[in-house]
Amino acid sequence: MYYKVSKNLPKKIQLNRLLLIFALFTTIISCTTGDDDLSSRIDKSVNLRSLGDSAHDLLSDEKFTSINIEIAYVAGYAPNPDALKIFKSYLERRTFKPDGININLRSVESSGLAPFEIDEIVDIEKTTRTTYNAGDEIAVFIYYADGSNEDDEDSKVILGSAFRNTSMVIYTKTIEEFVAKPGNPSRKTVEAAVLNHEFGHLLGLVDIGSEAQSDHADSENDGHCTARGCLMRSSIEFGYGIANMLDENGVPMLDAQCITDLQANGGR
């Protein structure tokens, strides 16, 4: 930007004009860089910690009074609306968030990396996630992937995974293929069960952030429950046996022992 000061004006007027131009230029610079400065000041690290580290913050209203859930889904793999209703209701029953739980959806382009290693999902989060903790609002990121996990087997598939303190992935294509098989439950039921189960891990279940108050942790599958029919059974996450646990009357509930764990850590 170029400004010209006439030499014919008195020196005092020229000086005042220069000061005015300098002030205007400074204002322009501050306006154009303000957003970048704000972005750089966001402490993203608090949302990128180990699984279970934010269990108490998600459960209680001691520090955060609301939850902001960002769901980034690959185009063509949008969440099931009815599954999201079940999911939100589950969170409202188990957490203290007087200012509410907000779920925001947005479509993103495919990474083209499927089938996925979990490290690739971590990298996708780095470039895709836009929502982080702000004030008294805690943020959660959920990625709806357009492919499967690379560790899937014929008899065992991974339907979802909680991989950080506020991060989850749902393997949407795998769920679609699973529910398409004759006799299996609907997309709504399976997706809601997986969402609830994986968020249960963010809430610290089982014994990964919310200390177990009784002996119900699965020694063969970390973070899971041994109680028959409990939402936190490993079969919900890994696919085997899930059809026997689900029906159109609803998804499995948390066992009383899991609920006790959450209540001991600030939840309902």
**Oligomeric state of the chains present here:** single chain
What value does the average pLDDT take? 86
Low-confidence stretches: 1-9, 18-38
Distance between the termini: 60 Å
Assigned CATH class of the largest domain: Alpha Beta
Helix/sheet category: alpha/beta
Protein name: Membrane metalloprotease
Organism: Autumnicola tepida
InterPro entries: MetalloPept_cat_dom_sf
Task: Summarize the topology.
Elements: H1 11-41, H2 55-59, E1 66-74, H3 81-94, E2 101-108, H4 118-128, E3 137-145, E4 160-164, E5 167-171, H5 172-179, H6 187-202, H7 234-238, H8 242-245, H9 256-264
Parallel strand pairs: 1-2, 1-3, 3-5
Antiparallel strand pairs: 4-5
Overall description:
The structure is a single chain. The protein folds into 2 domains: 9-41; 46-264, Collagenase (Catalytic Domain) (3-Layer(aba) Sandwich), CATH 3.40.390. Residues 1-9 and 18-38 have low confidence and may be disordered. With 268 residues, the protein is of the alpha/beta class. It has a 5-stranded mixed sheet, sandwiched between helices. The protein is built from 9 helices and 5 strands; from the N terminus they run ααβαβαβββααααα. The chain has helices spanning 11-41, 55-59, 81-94, 118-128, 172-179, 187-202, 234-238, 242-245, 256-264; strands at 66-74, 101-108, 137-145, 160-164, 167-171.
